[in-house]
Write a structure and sequence with these properties.
The chain is an all-alpha fold. 67% of the residues lie in helices and 0% in strands.
């Protein structure tokens, strides 16, 4: 089957848009409800200057350390206001761009691939269910953007040609700028200079001149300088980030014993994307004993080493997989020990690896085998696409998201708490009460917000005395809950929830 480049592009765009078309008609869930529907930062034009100049690194605002992501959301806010469609459209289009960038890199590294072979890897990336979290939740767009600039910087560097040396200065500037924009999107932007450096060392080592040292050195300096500023300028104490991230298990040593199990979970999710969850925890890796997990990680590492030994191009794919994961490997505390969105850029590397496997040296002259592998890839893409569309439905509403999360991880406080509030919003009060009491149980009764949700549920049921008792408990544990407007101001509470809580607090003051 012959597909010229434009038809290949049209195929990739059409399939990706078809898989994520349903996302365009849904509302906002999870953190996007706070950042877009509650926070006013995105809608204040005075904030453009500090965002574009990276001054937010010293400001106490959501995503202070990801100014490029803030700029993206602010642009949406200027065009769409608080209408969800526009935010979803932007995220889907950025994902389409990333698919095309993977396609471009595959074509640059494997120019002899037949058209269908060139499409296989990018399509795996385009429709893998693991990308849904980043694509369907606009506040997680940071993972899309860091991938865009990392892949674009790499592709620009790969396109350097001795025959067009007059353009090298502008190409070098663009590559370094991409690295700065990548790290300004998310910390996994450390992959930008790493990918260019590995490409240079493995495939362009013999080239002399100033271009490669300047690009790799400049990109590395940009990334290191940004990270230094990010940690040195971080506002402390923060009114928004009241609770600091903790190591899973409570210490670095404990985290490093859990991390192999998280990495093994990632391997399973890439190869067999089942039981995806918006809130992974120790419960989510309980089926992976540490020795088994270590064995899986070593096996994957060994397979990668053999692949690189057989085909040096695989080093570039391995870099795009491994380096972004290193940034979320719990070497420093992060708010979520594991998440599907952490695998978005690594999946771009997986897509590249699939394309390179179809162009492997050992397939030379074995076209029948290549065709069988292509057919297998086609089946995999169809299965992944169907699963991806189903997973995207989970992100279509608060109720579907937290129902799925609580079912997958019944030990997660976030899942139980989110489900309680989602059920309350939809009027399913009996079930909401059960979920709220489960959240209280999971937090050992020490989370005031769980008691506050229970108070609102009991009040909606007309059980005023019990509601006031729960409210008193909530405010005793967390006195700040007595000021809902203050909680909204520091992005700790959504506005509709705060209004309901204010009304209950007002009645509590006037009744005995």
């Amino acid at each position: 089957m012959v597909l010229d480049p434009w038809r290949q592009v049209a195929t990739l765009v059409g399939i990706t848009l078809a898989v994520f078309a349903g996302t365009l008609s849904v509302g906002l869930v999870y953190d996007a409800r706070l950042q877009i529907l509650t926070d006013s930062f995105l809608f204040d034009s005075a904030n453009w200057l500090p965002v574009l100049t990276y001054q937010t690194l010293a400001m106490d605002v959501l995503d202070f350390n990801r100014p490029v992501n803030l700029a993206s959301l602010m642009l949406d806010a200027a065009v769409w206001g608080r209408e969800p469609f526009g935010y979803h459209l932007t995220s889907v289009l950025v994902h389409v761009l990333n698919v095309l960038l993977v396609w471009g890199i595959v074509g640059r590294l494997a120019p002899g691939l037949p058209p269908l072979g060139r499409l296989a890897g990018p399509l795996v990336f385009a429709v893998h269910p693991l990308v849904t979290e980043a694509v369907c939740e606009p506040s997680f767009r940071e993972d899309l953007l860091v991938s865009s600039f990392t892949l674009l910087g790499l592709l620009l560097a790969m396109e350097k040609s001795p025959a067009a040396a007059r353009h090298d200065v502008w190409r070098a500037i663009a590559c370094v700028a991409c690295a700065l924009l990548a790290i300004g999107s998310k910390e996994s932007g450390i992959a930008a200079p790493a990918a260019i450096a590995v490409y240079r060392l493995t495939l362009r080592r013999g080239e002399r001149g100033w271009f490669w040292p300047v690009v790799i050195g400049g990109a590395t300096v940009a990334v290191v300088a940004f990270l230094a500023a990010r940690f040195l300028l971080e506002p402390t104490p923060s009114k928004i980030f009241e609770a600091r991230p903790q190591y899973p298990g409570g210490s670095l040593a404990a985290a490093m014993l859990i991390e192999p199990r998280i990495l093994a979970l990632y391997v399973q999710l890439v190869l067999l994307p089942v039981n995806q969850c918006a809130d992974y925890g120790v419960y989510s890796v309980s089926h992976l004993p540490l020795p088994v997990a270590v064995g899986v990680v070593l096996a994957v590492g060994g397979a990668a080493a053999l692949a690189i030994r057989a085909d040096r191009r695989m080093a570039v794919a391995a870099t795009l997989v491994g380096v972004p994961i290193l940034s979320v490997a719990n070497l420093v505390p992060i708010y979520r020990a594991a998440a599907d969105r952490y695998l978005y850029l690594p999946l771009g590397g997986v897509g590249l690896a699939v394309g390179l496997l179809l162009d492997a040296p050992w397939l030379a002259g074995r076209e029948r085998l290549r065709q069988r592998l292509l057919a297998g890839c086609g089946v995999v893409v169809i299965l992944l696409g169907a699963t991806c569309m189903e997973r995207a439905k989970v992100w279509s509403s608060q109720l579907s998201l937290w129902t799925d999360t609580f079912r997958k991880n019944p030990a997660a406080f976030t899942g139980a708490s989110g489900l309680a509030e989602a059920l309350r919003e939809t009027g399913r009060l009996t079930e909401a009460e059960q979920a709220a009491r489960r959240a209280i149980q999971l937090s050992e009764g020490q989370r005031g917000d769980a008691w506050a949700t229970l108070a609102l549920i009991l009040d909606a049921q007309g059980r005023m005395v019990e509601a006031f008792e729960a409210l008193d408990k909530a405010v005793t544990l967390e006195p700040k809950l007595g000021d809902p407007d203050g909680r909204v101001a520091v992005m700790a509470m959504e506005r509709p929830y705060a209004e309901d809580l204010k009304r209950l607090l007002a009645r509590r003051k006037v009744l005995p």
